[in-house]
Amino acid sequence: MSINANAQTDIDGLFMAKRNFCGGVIGGYSAWDHYWEGTTYRINQNIGTVSSQSAMIMGNYGVTDKLNVLFMLPWIKNEASAGTLIGQQGFQDLTLLLKNEFWIKDFNGLVVSAVGVLGGSLPVQDYTADYLPLAIGMKSKTAMGRLLVDAQKGYWFATASASGMIRGNVTLDRTAYYTTEMIYSNKVVMPSVFGYNVRLGWREGADKIFELVLDGMNTLGGFDIRRNDMPFLSNNMDMLRVGVNTKYPIPKTNGLSIMAGANTVIGGRNMGQSTGYTAGLVYQFLVKSNKKE
Fold first, then answer.
1. Cβ–Cβ contacts within 10 Å for residue 194, how many?
2. pLDDT-derived band at 8, boundaries 50, 70, 90
3. Helix, strand, coil content of the chain in percent (nearest 5)
4. May I ask the CATH architecture of the domain 20-285?
5. CA–CA distances in Å: residue 130 to residues 107, 117, 134, 140
6. What secondary structure letter does DSSP report for 223?
7. pLDDT of residue 289
8. What is the distance between the alpha carbons of residues 2 and 29, in angstroms, rounded to a whole number?
9. What residue spans define the domains of the chain?
C-alpha cells in the first residue's frame, strides 16, 4: 500500500512497444499517527507515528505492442516512533502480471481502449505477517484480475479500472487466535479484496505525464480491530486515497525518465490515515534484435 507508481503499470492504459523494456527503482515514504479502529478515528500513543520506507524494483517488457509482462518487487522498512514494538524490514512479495489490450477504437479523435490484466504474487522471504501494523506484508499468495478502460483525446485522458484479488490462507506461528470467536488453528482464511482506480490528466505519449488519481480498496469480509488491540491479518480493511503523479524524460539521456508522486488517505476502516511520497528513475531501451531499427 505504500507504493503508488505510475506510467506503464497494471493500472494505466499505456503499453511498452514490442521488444522494449522499461525498468527502474521507485522509492517511497509514508507515515501516519491517526487510524481507524473499525469506524472509530483515533490515535495510539503506544505506537506514536508509524512510518514506512520502501524501494520497489519494477520492470515491463513488450512481448507485442498489445501484450506486456510486468514484475514488481518491493523492499519495505516499517517502524514506530513510540512504544516497544521492534521495526521490521525486508523484501515483501514478488508480483507478476500479464497486461493485454484486447479492444481499441477511434471515435473521431477520441481513442478508447479496453485492457485486461491477470497475475498474482507470492512472498519471497519468510517474514512475520502476524505483527501488524509493523509487518511488511500479509504473506499470502494471491491471484488477481483487472479490467481497465482508457480514453484519450489530444493530450487529455481518463482511465478507470476495477480489480478483484483472491488471497490464500496464511500460516501463523501460533496454534490459536481470536477474531470474533476463538479459533484453534494456525491457518487464517483471508478475505478477498475489491479495488478501483480512476485517473485524469494530461499525457504526451508515455513519457510526459501529469495525472490526478483516486484509488480505493474494499475487503470483502473480515472483522474490525477490537478496542485497543493490534490489527489482525483478516481484518476488514477499507481505504480511499487521492494523489497526484508525474513522469518526465531527462533530456539528453535517451530513455531515462524521472517519476514522482504524492498521495493521502481520506477515508478508511481498520487502516492508518497515511500520507506518502514516491520518486524514482526508470530507463527504457530496445532489447537486442536482428533487425536494424
1. 14
2. low
3. 0, 60, 40
4. Beta Barrel (2.40)
5. 51, 30, 9, 11
6. B
7. 67
8. 7
9. 20-285
Q: What is the value of pTM for the model shown?
A: 0.93
What are the grid coordinates assigned to 141, written together? 499468495
Residues 216-220: what's their mean pLDDT? Answer: 97
Residue that has been written with the C-alpha cell 539521456 in this structure = 253
Mean pLDDT check: name the lowest of 54-63, 96-105, 282-291: 282-291
Task: Give the C-alpha separation, 140 to 142, whole Å.
Answer: 6
The HSE-up count of residue 210 (CA atoms within 13 Å, CB side) is: 2
Please give the mean pLDDT across all residues of the chain.
94
Instruction: Report whether pLDDT(1) > 50.
Output: no
Asked if 167 and 137 touch (Cβ cutoff 8 Å), the reply is no
Q: How far apart are CA 42 and CA 240, in angstroms?
A: 17
Q: Which residues are within 8 A (CB) of 181 and not within 5 positions of it... i.e. 6 or more apart?
A: none
**Among candidate residues 150, 121, 115, 116, the one with its CA nearest the CA of residue 56:** 121
